[in-house]
Specification:
Blueprint: H1 3-17, H2 25-28, E1 39-42, E2 45-52, E3 55-60, H3 77-86, E4 98-102, H4 108-126, E5 135-141, H5 145-154, H6 161-168, E6 173-178, E7 184-190, H7 201-217, H8 226-239, H9 245-267, H10 272-282, H11 288-291, H12 300-313, H13 315-328, H14 330-338, H15 342-358
Parallel strand pairs: 4-5, 5-7
Antiparallel strand pairs: 1-2, 2-3, 6-7
This protein binds zinc ion.
Protein backbone atom coordinates (compact mmCIF):
# COMPACT_ATOMS: atom_id res chain seq x y z
CA UNK A 1 0.00 0.00 0.00
CA UNK A 2 1.46 3.36 -0.86
CA UNK A 3 2.14 5.94 1.77
CA UNK A 4 -0.43 8.50 0.71
CA UNK A 5 -3.24 5.96 0.71
CA UNK A 6 -2.27 4.71 4.17
CA UNK A 7 -2.37 8.25 5.53
CA UNK A 8 -5.74 8.85 3.94
CA UNK A 9 -7.18 5.68 5.44
CA UNK A 10 -5.88 6.50 8.91
CA UNK A 11 -7.40 9.98 8.73
CA UNK A 12 -10.67 8.42 7.69
CA UNK A 13 -10.50 6.01 10.63
CA UNK A 14 -9.99 8.87 13.08
CA UNK A 15 -12.97 10.71 11.63
CA UNK A 16 -15.21 7.69 11.89
CA UNK A 17 -14.16 6.96 15.43
CA UNK A 18 -14.66 10.51 16.66
CA UNK A 19 -17.53 10.58 19.10
CA UNK A 20 -20.59 12.29 17.70
CA UNK A 21 -21.06 15.44 19.70
CA UNK A 22 -21.52 13.46 22.92
CA UNK A 23 -24.02 15.68 24.66
CA UNK A 24 -26.70 15.51 21.95
CA UNK A 25 -25.97 12.78 19.51
CA UNK A 26 -25.47 10.02 22.02
CA UNK A 27 -28.72 10.82 23.72
CA UNK A 28 -30.65 11.29 20.48
CA UNK A 29 -29.55 8.26 18.50
CA UNK A 30 -31.77 5.44 19.49
CA UNK A 31 -34.23 7.78 21.23
CA UNK A 32 -37.87 7.08 20.60
CA UNK A 33 -39.69 9.05 17.91
CA UNK A 34 -43.31 9.26 16.85
CA UNK A 35 -43.51 9.10 13.05
CA UNK A 36 -41.41 7.19 10.54
CA UNK A 37 -39.72 9.38 7.98
CA UNK A 38 -39.57 12.53 10.10
CA UNK A 39 -36.20 14.23 10.32
CA UNK A 40 -34.57 16.65 12.71
CA UNK A 41 -31.24 18.40 12.81
CA UNK A 42 -29.19 18.70 15.96
CA UNK A 43 -25.75 20.30 15.97
CA UNK A 44 -25.60 19.99 12.20
CA UNK A 45 -26.38 16.27 12.29
CA UNK A 46 -29.51 14.96 10.67
CA UNK A 47 -31.54 12.29 12.39
CA UNK A 48 -34.30 10.34 10.80
CA UNK A 49 -37.15 8.51 12.44
CA UNK A 50 -36.79 4.92 11.32
CA UNK A 51 -39.13 2.04 12.03
CA UNK A 52 -37.38 -1.18 12.92
CA UNK A 53 -39.73 -4.00 13.85
CA UNK A 54 -42.32 -2.31 16.01
CA UNK A 55 -39.95 0.28 17.35
CA UNK A 56 -39.59 3.85 16.04
CA UNK A 57 -36.24 5.44 16.81
CA UNK A 58 -34.04 8.34 15.77
CA UNK A 59 -31.14 7.18 13.67
CA UNK A 60 -28.24 9.39 12.63
CA UNK A 61 -28.20 9.62 8.85
CA UNK A 62 -24.85 9.71 7.12
CA UNK A 63 -23.73 13.30 6.62
CA UNK A 64 -22.18 12.45 3.29
CA UNK A 65 -24.96 11.42 0.99
CA UNK A 66 -24.19 8.71 -1.48
CA UNK A 67 -23.40 10.13 -4.89
CA UNK A 68 -24.27 7.99 -7.84
CA UNK A 69 -21.57 8.75 -10.37
CA UNK A 70 -22.91 10.10 -13.66
CA UNK A 71 -22.03 8.08 -16.71
CA UNK A 72 -19.05 9.91 -18.20
CA UNK A 73 -20.01 11.79 -21.34
CA UNK A 74 -17.82 10.76 -24.21
CA UNK A 75 -16.54 13.87 -25.90
CA UNK A 76 -14.02 12.97 -28.52
CA UNK A 77 -10.94 15.20 -28.77
CA UNK A 78 -11.89 16.37 -32.25
CA UNK A 79 -15.45 17.26 -31.29
CA UNK A 80 -14.30 19.06 -28.15
CA UNK A 81 -12.06 21.17 -30.39
CA UNK A 82 -14.93 21.87 -32.77
CA UNK A 83 -17.23 22.83 -29.92
CA UNK A 84 -14.53 25.23 -28.72
CA UNK A 85 -14.53 26.97 -32.10
CA UNK A 86 -18.35 27.07 -32.08
CA UNK A 87 -18.52 28.55 -28.59
CA UNK A 88 -17.73 32.10 -29.68
CA UNK A 89 -20.92 33.96 -30.42
CA UNK A 90 -20.39 37.59 -29.59
CA UNK A 91 -21.86 40.09 -31.97
CA UNK A 92 -18.78 41.98 -33.14
CA UNK A 93 -18.70 45.76 -33.09
CA UNK A 94 -17.52 45.87 -36.69
CA UNK A 95 -18.78 43.35 -39.22
CA UNK A 96 -16.76 42.56 -42.31
CA UNK A 97 -18.22 44.32 -45.35
CA UNK A 98 -18.89 42.44 -48.54
CA UNK A 99 -19.39 43.25 -52.21
CA UNK A 100 -21.24 40.47 -54.06
CA UNK A 101 -21.67 40.46 -57.85
CA UNK A 102 -23.37 37.74 -59.86
CA UNK A 103 -22.87 37.03 -63.54
CA UNK A 104 -25.92 37.35 -65.85
CA UNK A 105 -26.55 33.59 -66.17
CA UNK A 106 -26.42 32.73 -62.48
CA UNK A 107 -29.91 31.71 -61.26
CA UNK A 108 -31.13 34.23 -58.69
CA UNK A 109 -32.00 31.42 -56.30
CA UNK A 110 -28.31 30.41 -56.19
CA UNK A 111 -27.12 33.93 -55.47
CA UNK A 112 -29.70 34.26 -52.71
CA UNK A 113 -28.68 30.98 -51.09
CA UNK A 114 -24.98 31.84 -51.05
CA UNK A 115 -25.62 35.38 -49.81
CA UNK A 116 -27.79 34.10 -46.96
CA UNK A 117 -24.98 31.94 -45.59
CA UNK A 118 -22.50 34.79 -45.78
CA UNK A 119 -24.27 36.60 -43.01
CA UNK A 120 -23.45 34.02 -40.30
CA UNK A 121 -19.92 33.37 -41.49
CA UNK A 122 -19.00 37.06 -41.61
CA UNK A 123 -20.41 37.70 -38.15
CA UNK A 124 -18.55 34.68 -36.82
CA UNK A 125 -15.16 35.64 -38.24
CA UNK A 126 -15.54 39.36 -37.50
CA UNK A 127 -15.26 38.50 -33.80
CA UNK A 128 -11.60 37.76 -34.44
CA UNK A 129 -10.41 39.80 -37.41
CA UNK A 130 -11.82 42.30 -39.89
CA UNK A 131 -10.35 43.33 -43.23
CA UNK A 132 -10.65 47.06 -43.93
CA UNK A 133 -11.44 46.22 -47.56
CA UNK A 134 -14.73 44.58 -48.51
CA UNK A 135 -14.80 40.90 -49.29
CA UNK A 136 -15.16 40.99 -53.09
CA UNK A 137 -17.30 38.02 -54.02
CA UNK A 138 -18.11 36.92 -57.53
CA UNK A 139 -20.65 34.26 -58.48
CA UNK A 140 -20.48 32.87 -62.00
CA UNK A 141 -22.04 29.98 -63.91
CA UNK A 142 -20.56 27.73 -66.60
CA UNK A 143 -22.09 30.07 -69.22
CA UNK A 144 -20.31 33.19 -67.97
CA UNK A 145 -16.71 32.65 -69.07
CA UNK A 146 -16.25 36.04 -70.74
CA UNK A 147 -18.04 37.93 -68.00
CA UNK A 148 -15.88 36.13 -65.44
CA UNK A 149 -12.58 36.97 -67.17
CA UNK A 150 -13.57 40.63 -67.35
CA UNK A 151 -14.58 40.76 -63.70
CA UNK A 152 -11.35 38.92 -62.76
CA UNK A 153 -9.31 41.64 -64.50
CA UNK A 154 -11.30 44.37 -62.77
CA UNK A 155 -10.47 42.72 -59.45
CA UNK A 156 -6.76 42.96 -60.20
CA UNK A 157 -6.00 39.67 -62.02
CA UNK A 158 -5.44 37.58 -58.92
CA UNK A 159 -4.11 34.01 -58.95
CA UNK A 160 -7.43 32.39 -59.97
CA UNK A 161 -8.39 33.44 -63.55
CA UNK A 162 -7.93 30.92 -66.35
CA UNK A 163 -6.27 28.42 -63.99
CA UNK A 164 -9.30 28.22 -61.71
CA UNK A 165 -11.78 28.26 -64.60
CA UNK A 166 -10.04 25.21 -66.08
CA UNK A 167 -9.71 23.52 -62.71
CA UNK A 168 -13.47 23.60 -62.12
CA UNK A 169 -14.00 22.05 -65.57
CA UNK A 170 -17.66 21.20 -66.07
CA UNK A 171 -18.32 21.24 -62.36
CA UNK A 172 -18.81 23.76 -59.61
CA UNK A 173 -16.19 25.23 -57.33
CA UNK A 174 -15.09 27.88 -54.92
CA UNK A 175 -11.82 29.80 -54.75
CA UNK A 176 -10.04 32.62 -53.00
CA UNK A 177 -7.48 34.62 -54.95
CA UNK A 178 -4.89 37.26 -54.07
CA UNK A 179 -3.89 40.01 -56.45
CA UNK A 180 -0.59 41.89 -56.43
CA UNK A 181 -1.80 44.61 -54.12
CA UNK A 182 -2.86 42.04 -51.51
CA UNK A 183 -6.59 42.30 -52.24
CA UNK A 184 -8.44 39.07 -51.53
CA UNK A 185 -11.22 38.03 -53.92
CA UNK A 186 -13.66 35.17 -53.55
CA UNK A 187 -15.33 33.21 -56.35
CA UNK A 188 -18.13 30.69 -56.61
CA UNK A 189 -18.99 28.81 -59.76
CA UNK A 190 -22.47 27.30 -59.88
CA UNK A 191 -24.22 25.41 -62.68
CA UNK A 192 -27.35 26.53 -64.47
CA UNK A 193 -28.43 22.90 -64.84
CA UNK A 194 -28.83 21.93 -61.20
CA UNK A 195 -28.87 23.47 -57.72
CA UNK A 196 -25.40 24.05 -56.36
CA UNK A 197 -24.03 21.79 -53.67
CA UNK A 198 -21.69 24.62 -52.68
CA UNK A 199 -24.46 27.01 -51.73
CA UNK A 200 -24.48 25.55 -48.25
CA UNK A 201 -23.51 26.92 -44.88
CA UNK A 202 -20.73 24.34 -44.79
CA UNK A 203 -19.02 25.43 -48.00
CA UNK A 204 -19.52 29.13 -47.45
CA UNK A 205 -17.84 28.74 -44.05
CA UNK A 206 -14.96 26.97 -45.77
CA UNK A 207 -14.33 29.66 -48.40
CA UNK A 208 -14.85 32.58 -46.04
CA UNK A 209 -12.29 31.03 -43.67
CA UNK A 210 -9.67 31.43 -46.42
CA UNK A 211 -10.49 35.13 -46.67
CA UNK A 212 -9.90 35.63 -42.96
CA UNK A 213 -6.76 33.48 -42.95
CA UNK A 214 -5.31 35.82 -45.54
CA UNK A 215 -6.56 38.83 -43.58
CA UNK A 216 -4.91 37.67 -40.36
CA UNK A 217 -1.70 36.22 -41.80
CA UNK A 218 -1.24 38.65 -44.69
CA UNK A 219 1.52 37.46 -47.08
CA UNK A 220 2.78 34.96 -44.51
CA UNK A 221 -0.21 32.78 -45.40
CA UNK A 222 1.78 31.70 -48.48
CA UNK A 223 4.58 30.32 -46.30
CA UNK A 224 2.36 28.25 -44.04
CA UNK A 225 2.67 24.45 -44.20
CA UNK A 226 0.35 22.32 -46.31
CA UNK A 227 -1.75 21.33 -43.29
CA UNK A 228 -2.70 24.87 -42.30
CA UNK A 229 -4.87 26.59 -44.92
CA UNK A 230 -7.14 23.90 -46.31
CA UNK A 231 -7.00 21.95 -43.06
CA UNK A 232 -8.32 24.84 -41.01
CA UNK A 233 -10.99 25.60 -43.63
CA UNK A 234 -12.09 21.93 -43.43
CA UNK A 235 -12.06 22.04 -39.64
CA UNK A 236 -14.22 25.19 -39.51
CA UNK A 237 -16.49 23.89 -42.27
CA UNK A 238 -17.16 20.73 -40.25
CA UNK A 239 -17.50 22.51 -36.91
CA UNK A 240 -20.03 25.01 -38.29
CA UNK A 241 -21.72 22.81 -40.87
CA UNK A 242 -25.08 23.41 -39.21
CA UNK A 243 -26.56 25.59 -36.49
CA UNK A 244 -27.61 22.42 -34.71
CA UNK A 245 -24.75 20.76 -32.85
CA UNK A 246 -26.13 17.30 -33.58
CA UNK A 247 -26.40 17.88 -37.31
CA UNK A 248 -22.98 19.56 -37.47
CA UNK A 249 -21.43 16.62 -35.63
CA UNK A 250 -22.90 14.09 -38.04
CA UNK A 251 -21.56 16.05 -41.02
CA UNK A 252 -18.20 16.36 -39.28
CA UNK A 253 -18.09 12.58 -38.77
CA UNK A 254 -18.56 12.05 -42.51
CA UNK A 255 -15.84 14.60 -43.35
CA UNK A 256 -13.45 12.93 -40.92
CA UNK A 257 -14.14 9.49 -42.38
CA UNK A 258 -13.06 10.77 -45.76
CA UNK A 259 -9.98 12.44 -44.25
CA UNK A 260 -8.95 9.34 -42.31
CA UNK A 261 -9.34 7.00 -45.25
CA UNK A 262 -7.37 9.29 -47.60
CA UNK A 263 -4.49 9.69 -45.13
CA UNK A 264 -4.52 5.96 -44.42
CA UNK A 265 -4.21 5.15 -48.10
CA UNK A 266 -1.24 7.49 -48.37
CA UNK A 267 0.50 6.58 -45.12
CA UNK A 268 -0.12 2.88 -45.64
CA UNK A 269 2.66 2.86 -48.23
CA UNK A 270 5.26 4.24 -45.83
CA UNK A 271 6.33 3.77 -42.27
CA UNK A 272 3.63 5.69 -40.47
CA UNK A 273 5.69 7.78 -38.01
CA UNK A 274 8.24 8.80 -40.63
CA UNK A 275 5.59 9.11 -43.31
CA UNK A 276 3.50 11.42 -41.17
CA UNK A 277 6.46 13.52 -40.10
CA UNK A 278 7.49 13.86 -43.71
CA UNK A 279 3.98 14.83 -44.80
CA UNK A 280 3.86 17.46 -42.05
CA UNK A 281 7.23 19.02 -42.70
CA UNK A 282 8.22 18.40 -46.31
CA UNK A 283 5.03 18.74 -48.30
CA UNK A 284 4.50 22.37 -49.14
CA UNK A 285 1.33 24.30 -49.69
CA UNK A 286 1.99 24.29 -53.44
CA UNK A 287 2.65 20.52 -53.70
CA UNK A 288 0.21 18.59 -55.91
CA UNK A 289 -0.32 16.06 -53.10
CA UNK A 290 -1.38 18.95 -50.88
CA UNK A 291 -4.30 20.32 -52.85
CA UNK A 292 -4.59 19.02 -56.38
CA UNK A 293 -4.59 15.23 -56.36
CA UNK A 294 -5.36 12.45 -53.91
CA UNK A 295 -4.66 12.18 -51.01
CA UNK A 296 -5.23 15.97 -50.90
CA UNK A 297 -3.19 16.12 -47.71
CA UNK A 298 -3.98 19.78 -47.11
CA UNK A 299 -7.64 18.91 -46.69
CA UNK A 300 -7.45 15.44 -45.21
CA UNK A 301 -4.37 15.34 -42.99
CA UNK A 302 -4.89 19.07 -42.47
CA UNK A 303 -8.31 18.63 -40.88
CA UNK A 304 -6.88 16.16 -38.34
CA UNK A 305 -3.91 18.41 -37.57
CA UNK A 306 -6.14 21.42 -36.97
CA UNK A 307 -8.49 19.58 -34.64
CA UNK A 308 -5.53 18.51 -32.50
CA UNK A 309 -4.08 22.02 -32.59
CA UNK A 310 -7.32 23.50 -31.24
CA UNK A 311 -7.74 20.67 -28.73
CA UNK A 312 -4.23 21.24 -27.36
CA UNK A 313 -4.10 25.03 -27.37
CA UNK A 314 -7.71 26.33 -27.75
CA UNK A 315 -9.29 28.12 -30.69
CA UNK A 316 -8.59 31.61 -29.39
CA UNK A 317 -4.87 30.82 -29.17
CA UNK A 318 -4.92 29.59 -32.74
CA UNK A 319 -6.38 32.96 -33.72
CA UNK A 320 -3.52 34.67 -31.80
CA UNK A 321 -1.04 32.46 -33.63
CA UNK A 322 -2.50 33.59 -36.96
CA UNK A 323 -2.48 37.28 -36.09
CA UNK A 324 1.11 37.20 -34.82
CA UNK A 325 2.44 35.30 -37.85
CA UNK A 326 3.12 38.33 -40.09
CA UNK A 327 5.66 39.73 -37.56
CA UNK A 328 8.36 37.07 -37.64
CA UNK A 329 6.88 34.25 -39.64
CA UNK A 330 4.46 31.47 -38.74
CA UNK A 331 7.09 29.26 -37.09
CA UNK A 332 8.23 31.93 -34.64
CA UNK A 333 4.61 32.72 -33.93
CA UNK A 334 3.84 29.04 -33.33
CA UNK A 335 6.70 28.91 -30.84
CA UNK A 336 5.79 32.06 -28.93
CA UNK A 337 2.03 31.41 -28.91
CA UNK A 338 2.02 27.73 -28.01
CA UNK A 339 5.30 27.52 -26.12
CA UNK A 340 6.64 24.68 -28.26
CA UNK A 341 8.14 24.50 -31.73
CA UNK A 342 5.97 23.08 -34.49
CA UNK A 343 8.37 20.17 -35.02
CA UNK A 344 8.45 19.24 -31.33
CA UNK A 345 4.68 19.41 -31.20
CA UNK A 346 4.43 17.11 -34.22
CA UNK A 347 6.71 14.56 -32.59
CA UNK A 348 5.46 14.68 -29.02
CA UNK A 349 1.74 15.28 -29.37
CA UNK A 350 0.42 15.33 -32.89
CA UNK A 351 1.86 12.16 -34.41
CA UNK A 352 0.84 9.89 -31.50
CA UNK A 353 -2.68 11.37 -31.80
CA UNK A 354 -2.78 10.85 -35.57
CA UNK A 355 -1.62 7.25 -35.27
CA UNK A 356 -4.37 6.53 -32.76
CA UNK A 357 -7.03 8.22 -34.90
CA UNK A 358 -5.90 6.58 -38.12
CA UNK A 359 -6.23 3.12 -36.60
CA UNK A 360 -9.98 3.47 -36.17
ZN1 LIG B 1 -10.27 25.64 -49.52
Amino acid sequence: MNKRLTTFLSVLAVLVLLPLSPSNAASQTGGICSKAGKTKVISGKTFKCIKSGKKLSWILTPSISKVTPEAPKIVETWWRAMLDSRSFSQVPTVIQSIDIKSAPNVPKSETDKIAAHFNDTLIYWSQFVVNPQPLYTTIVSEKDYEWYMKRWQELGSDNTGQYWWDKTGNGEGGAVGWNNSGQINMYFKVLTTRPSTLATREHVFHEVTHFFQATALKDEVNNTPCWFGEGQAQFIQSAHADKSETVAKSIAIQNRKWAISAVNKYIGTTNSVDGLFNALTNISRGDVLCNRTEPLLGYTLGQLVNEKLVADFTWIKVIDFMKKSPENGWQASFNSTFGISAEDWYKKDLIPYLIAELKI
